[in-house]
């Protein structure tokens, strides 16, 4: 079985400018994703899809391949990443068949190789079209999350049934994370999104599930890495 890891890193990040090659604990953000993929020991190739020559150069420095450049129209803020996935699949299948598509977003730098192995193992046990990752949610839509109507009045987002009066008795809720996605090239080409198929999830400890979208997230990641040294 050929398992390819993919890292999608466009150059136009606005929340944290230049974040994909910004140093985090002495290593560019994309370098952490490459290392986790390599440390998994299960990926035959680690491929970076980017529109930015600077990102491509850093990726190759840390041991990834950049066999193609992503078209500009697939690197805009409003471009669905699923289409970048499909472009990458088409580009690599032009070289030959591969069996497993493993996406390792740059924004989860605290993941470890074991997390990647766990996702691949769950997928290869069968019974699903995709594996995603999640972490236990800190808030519950039936108790701690609200909506606001046009008049400014608040309401519980998902009111619990009359039988459930405590959060502890409600079904557990999880936040999706960007640690890892596993599927097949054929699923990406056939469908338009992950939840159009049968999806299973690997639960990631909160300390490894941080998703970097803001400067605050970046600072917190630096704190966690310093603490864990």
Automatic annotation (TrEMBL):
GO terms for molecular function: N-acylneuraminate cytidylyltransferase activity. InterPro entries: CMP-NeuNAc_synthase, Cytidylyl_trans, Nucleotide-diphossugar_trans. Keywords: Nucleotidyltransferase, Transferase. It comes from the Bacteria. The keyword Nucleotidyltransferase applies. This is N-acylneuraminate cytidylyltransferase. It comes from Pseudodesulfovibrio mercurii.
């Amino acid at each position: 079985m050929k398992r390819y890891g993919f890292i999608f890193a466009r150059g136009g990040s606005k929340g944290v400018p230049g974040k994909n090659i910004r140093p985090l604990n002495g290593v560019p953000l994309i370098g952490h994703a490459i290392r986790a993929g390599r440390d998994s020991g299960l990926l035959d190739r680690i491929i970076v899809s980017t529109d930015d020559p600077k990102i491509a150069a850093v990726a190759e420095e840390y041991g990834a391949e950049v066999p193609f450049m992503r078209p500009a129209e697939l690197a805009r803020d409003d471009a669905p990443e699923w289409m970048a996935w499909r472009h990458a699949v088409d580009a690599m299948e032009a070289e030959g068949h591969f069996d497993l598509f493993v996406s390792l977003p740059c924004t989860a730098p605290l993941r470890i190789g074991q997390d990647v192995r766990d996702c691949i193992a769950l997928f290869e046990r069968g019974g699903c079209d995709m594996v995603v990752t999640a972490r236990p949610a800190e808030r519950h839509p039936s108790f701690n999350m609200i909506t606001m109507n046009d008049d400014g009045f608040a309401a519980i987002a998902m009111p619990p049934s009359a039988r459930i009066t405590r959060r502890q008795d409600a079904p557990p809720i999880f936040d999706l994370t960007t640690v890892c996605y596993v599927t097949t090239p054929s699923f990406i080409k056939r469908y338009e999104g992950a939840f159009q198929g049968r999806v299973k999830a690997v639960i990631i400890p909160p300390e490894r599930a941080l998703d970097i979208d803001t400067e605050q997230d970046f600072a917190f990641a630096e704190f966690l890495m310093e603490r864990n040294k």
